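Below is how a single chain appears once it has passed through the pipeline. First comes the sequence as given, then the structure the pipeline wrote out for it. We keep one example in the README because the format questions we get most often are answered faster by looking than by reading.
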Amino acid sequence: FSVIHTAGLNGAPVSKNVLYHSISSNISGAARCWLTQNLGADQQPTAVTDNTESSSGWYWQFNRSQGYQYTGSRTPIYGWVPWITSITESSDWLPANDPCNLLLGGGWRIPTSTEWTNADAPPQNWGSATDAFASVLKLHQAGHLDNSNGLIYNRGANGYFWSNNQYPNSSNGSYLYIYSGYSAVTYASKADANSVRCIRDYIVPTKPGVSVVSIPTATMTSSTATGTATVTPDGGDDVTNRGLCWNTTGTPTTSDNVLSCGIGTGIISNTLTGLTQGPTYYVRAYATNSAGITYSPVVSSFRICPTTFTVNHTAGVNGAPVTKTVNYGSISSNISGAAKCWLTQNLGATQQATSLTDASEASAGWYFQFNRAQGYQYTSARTPATAWITSITESSNWAPANDPCTLLLGTGWRIPTSGEWTNADAPPQYWLTAVDGYNSVLKLHQAGHLDNSNGLIYNRGTYGYYWSSNQYPNSSNGSYLYIYSGYSDVTYSSKADANSVRCIQD
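Resulting structure:
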């Protein structure tokens, strides 16, 4: 049977389609269906010592729904899924966290410790990993991820298969352990991530699985947006209705606007039409079978933003340092924590940056000292050359009356808050370096800054400095997003520095 796994849905670490195989066996003490490959594995192992990722499948910490893939590193490795180094809870593996149930549906589950004990006992009488591989289950030595660091150990040398029972205390879980000279049900730290082999008693229809809706900004128009989601698994029964529902008030249901996308599992896609600039639109996918209806676990939201708009800047008006016409681009993004419109180039920039290290004036745009409306252009010298302030000490955030986004763009544009920059830098984006900021939808680059001491340009093409509207931690400093080759963080600098500005619109 074929299953579509979608990264982030029901604990899947990556997106891929897997063709699973199962058999009927009494090896656990009663007739059951067993997978003949590990959960998340693309194939049945070719040998007991098969150390390939495609045969190993994914790994789980005890009573956790999140799976991990291990190629040369762990996926997910950081950000929205932190590694757990210690698990102490007095609980067996809960059905709500069972990855077999979540990823396969229809009654699949993790075996009990008794079922593993029965499989290992007479008449099978496994004495080693070779015996387990020679059985109908084709168990092999897929290794595990160690609790201390989440790195792979013993792939191709030892096999570890979770049961759903803790033993003998709250820190350990029971599992089947196989290696060259041994096979037994024993226990290990719940924080180890081991393989999972699924079993099914009988078909138990459950609600289908539905992913979060993706709404690519590249396909948006001034009145339409296309939503895409995945329906999988089917829950052990046919999906008879599926689609998208949306509204402008939040948490949409099928009582709101509905776009039907047929029946069955798989990828669904449809286009919302008749949209306008202004409202925030909220979207979820849904799917129905005999057990009921399921909605996306998270509501997606977006706004219709002007793809391009033209502004005539005039020197001396609203802080513009020179006269020029700029065609700005903007996108809808939730990167700040809510649906907003963002410029895709710096304020005053003639174009979007062509690379992370783009050192051209056309991409850099203008620079602004904190809470000052006057912008500065820097070619071979600063324009205007006068009115430079070497020290700013005032207990104030950036006042709306001085906000260059509002003054130069109007219509609700403003400088982001420090909280919005922090959200952009944090999970799920989890920017670690300037490369991550540039690869994001915002296309942030290293435009440098004008130093407070002399107003000269520094670090254009090597560092990026983007003001927020908040002072921090005192009256002499302002909060800003700082990006360079090995770092990305919201920090602070002198208010008299002139940094780039990237505008946002509510």
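Residues 452 and 496 are 5 Å apart (CA to CA).

See the next section for the split statistics.
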